[in-house]
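Give me the fold.
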Amino acid sequence: MPTALDRQRIDRWLWHARLVRTREAAAALADAGFVRVNGARIDASGRMVRAGDVITVALDGGVRVLKVRGFVERRGPAGTVGMLYEALG
């Protein structure tokens, strides 16, 4: 269910968007420098993201480029991730 959130930690957002299986895995990706926000590499899982930010994530299967569309309070079913981001590449 959508909320009035205007920003969220990158580790929570990656987990809610189902790009990783656990929040710990999301934090590890960010802490290791495998995530970029608006082209700048980040090294902290606490980095806040806002709607409109472009997230680039290096995953085992390749690189995903996503535009943040929104946020949720809780991780929902796989069918709900479409409201969280727009795939750019």
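The CA atoms of residues 40 and 73 lie 26 Å apart.
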